[in-house]
Write a structure and sequence with these properties.
By secondary structure, the chain is of the alpha/beta class. It has an eight-stranded mixed β-barrel with strand order 8-9-11-12-13-14-15-16, surrounded by five helices. The protein has a five-stranded mixed β-sheet with strand order 2-3-1-6-7, with helices on both faces.
């Protein structure tokens, strides 16, 4: 009986198979990790830089679906052949995922050189691929990281390259991003903000601010939009454009939203009963079927009338999981909560969704309002939105009004509601009470006259 211990040949074959991708013949993820481990070890005494990169095929799944898995495999084999042919005698390329490839450049010492080499790979892969009697085209995104010191492990280098790849894919197809020390500092800052935000939410330190929404003709305040504001004891004032995306990405948005809604409804329950409160839901909340229950529990706890609450959602939020979003919207409307479509015209607009989701209100995005006085297309778009909403029986609010001339033009077009710095900036609950008292006194004086 033959064993694997005589010449060692069968054992070597098995080892080779364990390190080889069976489809393309390239090394697999185990081979790649082994190669990088060895290079780090070789350079332990003199840590000269080298480059690690991860390449991801853009849009491979649709091609796979369109042409079939056999054609998809053929394309992957052609990709592997092109990548292998582009490597010099020092370099390595491996297939580490379904449509992900990793490369190791031992002799690439700088970020500029790494980016240049990566762009060359993208160009090589952009030529057409033969799929039977047809051809297909692909693009690719690349993330790179450079080894600088003996403290860095293979796992750290690959994680950095994956982070750079994530940034490359977010910025569009066919992009290259090299993980820089600046990016590392930015990543550390995001982590610091995340940790501080978790503590702030747990301690109840995020506050609601309120911006007035007015009847454009009479200038009477009809409601307020709730906006989250956070000042940290160490970080200072953190803009919502910074902490809201972090809350979304790191899974904090649910508790954050519940905290702000509770505080907002506690503040607003004693306002005049004809004023409504508007509140934004994030895309991730529209895929969580507990969202409606959380909102109703908060309203019950604070004693706020559901009929005075408006929930704002965006087109992007609807697209994540339309079926889930529709169920949440219907659950909220059933108890009298009104639902508004925010930022209309800036996402993946579909007029059909206005019919499917039965919105009570539509908010015209500030991008159109800001250019209404000098841009004819914006003027026509706003007119068209207003005509459509009138036909659908929907209320309309124009956001971002900062000038009297903008408000006058909107009134001329027949827009009923408005919001923006012209009428008031977002302020905290105490300042909002002062605003309401001043408005009430002004209304009484106007009646006396």
């Amino acid at each position: 009986m033959q064993t694997t211990f005589g010449t060692g040949q069968p054992g070597r074959e098995n080892a080779d198979l364990a390190f080889t991708d069976p489809l393309t013949g390239l090394g697999n993820h185990r081979r790649f990790y082994d190669k990088v481990d060895r290079l780090i070890s070789d350079r332990a005494d003199d840590p000269a830089p080298f480059t690690v990169g991860i390449l991801d095929l853009d849009g491979f799944k649709p091609i796979n679906d369109l042409f079939g898995h056999k054609a998809g495999d053929d394309i992957l084999i052609q990709v592997a052949m092109r990548l292998r042919a582009s490597m010099d005698g020092y370099s390595t390329v491996c297939r580490i995922g379904a449509d992900e490839f990793a490369f190791l450049y031992p002799m690439v010492f700088s970020e500029e050189q790494a980016a240049e080499k990566s762009r060359m790979l993208i160009e090589i892969l952009s030529a057409p691929y033969d799929v039977g009697e047809r051809t297909a085209r692909l693009s690719a995104s690349v993330g790179c990281s450079l080894f600088y010191s003996g403290d860095e492990t293979t796992e750290i280098l690959i994680n950095k390259a994956e982070t750079a790849l994530y940034h490359a894919k977010r910025s569009g197809r066919g992009r290259v991003v090299v993980y820089t020390r600046e990016m590392e500092e930015a990543a550390k800052r995001v982590t610091r903000i995340e940790q501080a935000l978790r503590r702030a939410v747990s301690a109840g330190e995020v506050e609601p601010h309120f911006q007035p929404i007015v009847d454009l003709t009479s200038r009477r305040t009809i409601g307020f939009e709730t906006l989250a504001r956070w000042t940290d004891r160490d970080l200072g004032m953190v803009p919502p454009s910074v902490f809201i995306p972090i809350a979304e990405e790191r899974g904090i948005i649910g508790p954050l939203s519940q905290l702000v809604l509770r505080k907002a409804t506690e503040a607003a329950r004693n306002w005049p009963k004809d004023l409504f409160l508007s509140f934004n839901l994030s895309p991730s909340q529209l895929v969580d079927q507990n969202t409606g229950l959380h909102i109703l529990a908060i309203l019950d706890r604070t004693g706020f009338d559901p009929r005075r609450l408006e929930i704002e959602i965006t087109e992007t939020g609807l697209m994540t999981d339309p079926a889930s979003a529709e169920k949440i919207v219907e659950d909220l409307r059933r108890v009298g909560i009104r639902v508004s479509l925010d930022d209309f015209g800036t996402g993946q607009s579909s007029l059909g969704r206005l019919r499917e989701f039965h919105f009570d209100k539509l908010k015209i995005d500030r991008a159109f309002v800001s250019s209404i006085l000098e841009d004819r297309p914006s003027e026509h778009i706003i007119r068209a939105i207003l005509a459509m909403c009138e036909g659908l029986g929907m209320d309309v609010v124009a956001e971002g009004i900062e000038e009297e001339a903008q408000a006058d033009r909107l009134v001329q077009f027949g827009c009923a509601g408005g919001q923006g710095y012209l009428f008031g900036k977002p302020v905290d609950a105490d300042a909002t009470l002062g605003y309401l008292r001043d408005s009430y006194r002004g209304a009484l004086r106007a009646k006396a006259i």
